[in-house]
Design brief:
Elements (H helix, E strand, L loop, with lengths): L5 H12 L6 H19 L4 H19 L15 E4 L5 H10 L5 E4 L6 H5 L2 H16 L4 E6 L2 E4 L9 H4 L14 E2 L12 E4 L5 H15 L5 E5 L19 H11 L15 H28 L4 E6 L6 H5 L3 H5 L5 E3 L15 H17 L10 E4 L11 H13 L4 E3 L12 H13 L1 H5 L2 E2 L4 E4 L2 H6 L1 H18 L3 E4 L11 E5 L6 H11 L3 E5 L12 E4 L3 H12 L9 H5 L7 E4 L4 E8 L4 E7 L18 E5 L5 E6 L5 E3 L1 E4 L2 E5 L6 E7 L1
Parallel strand pairs: 1-2, 2-3, 3-7, 7-8, 8-9, 9-10, 10-11, 13-14, 13-15, 15-16, 16-17
Antiparallel strand pairs: 4-6, 5-6, 12-19, 18-21, 19-20, 20-26, 21-25, 22-23, 22-26, 24-25
Length: 680
Amino acid sequence: MSLVRAPKLIARRFFLKAGGAVTPAIERGVKPLLARILYIQGAGLKRKTLLAMFFLVWFAVGLAAAPDSAKQDWSNYVRIGAYGLKGGDAVEIVRRAKESGVFGIEVDNDIPGRYESFVDPTAKLKAIHDVAEEAHKAGNYAFVYIAGTECITAHGDQVPHTLAKDHPDWLQRKITGEPAIFGGGTAFWIRKGDEDVWVSPYAPEWRKQYMERVRQIAGTGIDGIYIDIPYWMTHFEGWEDTWASFDDYTVAAFKKQTGLDAKHDVKIGDFSDPAFRQWVTFRIQTFTDFLDEISHKAKAVNPKIKIIPEIYPGIEEEAVRVGADVYSLYAVTDAIAHEYEFGSGDHMASGRKPVDWFNYQVGMHTFRAFAQGPNGQDKPTWILNYSWDGDKVVDKREAMMNLAMSQIMDGANFWDAPGHSMAGSNDLATRKKIFSWIQAHEKTFYLPRSPIDPIGVYFSPETRNFYAKDFIASYRGILILLMQKHLEFQIVTPRTLEEFQGKTLVLPDVRLLNDSEKAALQAFAAHGRVVISGADATGLASSPNVVRLPDSPGKAYGAMMDKDFERASPDAEQSLFDSLQGSNAVQIKAGTLVATSIARTSDGHINCYFANFTGLRGGANPVQTPQEGVEVSLKGKSAGKGFFLPFMGEVQTVKGVKQGDGVTFTLPAISKGAVFWYED
């Protein structure tokens, strides 16, 4: 073994045995130190001295590998409430926010989304400045709502100037030429007589003026700009399958980039058509670039301002249709607020069945993985979802707590809102209690989390783009199997593939991989196991480290769950579990309707998060059946302290019992949810 190669291998193997993660940057930093130790060893230094030096290097690597909580700021810890901002009401808004425990005040004062203020923003800019100033006086933060490509003109049927009347060339259009103009009743937020239009992001005059408004908003001192639904118009009735927009500006931009005429060279809706695939990719890149430009324009004025898009499509095919792909957008924004309905099931917490809750957990864990980037980058995930909307059977307070619990266990931030409104609360007293409890334990949920000994599951954005139905079914099924078996998992993306340090990586029906991804998989297969479920696009040669499952256990289990989730048993897919290596540093014994996740937090704790969905009945029963006898076993641990924090409860100490080569903790009963952590 050469002295050049040896330090890298020693660092990786030595540190992985200690439960850490070695990034390429860490390897580069520690490699010279280990090379020096090996050189000294060749000179005959005593073994004890060498061991001491190895320990010091390991300690240094451990410090470097731990997520850096110092990089976090207010956006990681928000407890969001929303308020309409009219002007002159800044003091009252901030007072009300403080009283209900809100930290991170959303104010609705849309400049570019209302044609009158898009033309003259003076009054609204002052109102934004005033609320930012008052929030800062109170030690709080505020961010302001603006529309993406939508613009409404009030009383458009009566006034002489509307956006559509003044600038018809700005509008998005169907391939038949029909403009994206709508009126009252098309959506609940469009009033009778109003004109609602959707603008092409390639309309140059509109985009120039839009970015100027962004600069002006940033100049008010506001802490964030919240961009609502920056989409291609494909979500109103009659527009779902249009794959718009085919306005002249967009068609010209596509022609310049690809050489193709979108109106004549593309088989719209045909994913087997290479030209349509280029159209799909172009549409996604358009809004990634649009948000990136907003960020640069705003930060040129206010470097600390946060750019936060609100996106309702999540990991499913809807993201491809509207062109707002949260995987791509996390790379160019500071946080994302997800209005996530996970493609199926009831979007109200009061109506969700256990299978809906598990699907929801998959979505949120995936968002948290999208928020991760190279070298420990970790951006916040905000969730704007709805708990209750007049359900006469389900207690709204229980529904609110179920929604909050499900989100914070995954590391996402809770935004309370009633019905389909952003502002207000279904029950203000309950919100105060939830926010107060989250604030008291915020580090437990929002300190950076890193893997310990995970099973990796690969999310392939390109496969999702072109084979969404099959890929998502397989991907979601694999993750739910791991959750129900209580195995530690890590969602791996193209941004984090090279840094993945688990022993097994599962590819769930991944059909498309680029050369960089293939090279990274080839390197991983040299020391780790690649499990290929269903389709195989890897090009990997057969070896003991490459396991090909002829069927798709995730897809098969998904079909079983859809039929009867509570009777579906993960043991039915034993072939998958037989193919896995690793994920045994932390072992959990619990029922299959308890979703678990495991991580090491940046304070050095081993944390186990439990979301209990046992006994829930959508529209009938929002109260869980408590789970008793849940056990956590830690391999290689003999001493230390265990702590248990039930959702909305207080921290309790838990005594461990020595068993074999580790220690086992039997937890108190888990009602809605809980966290267990271990301190050396």
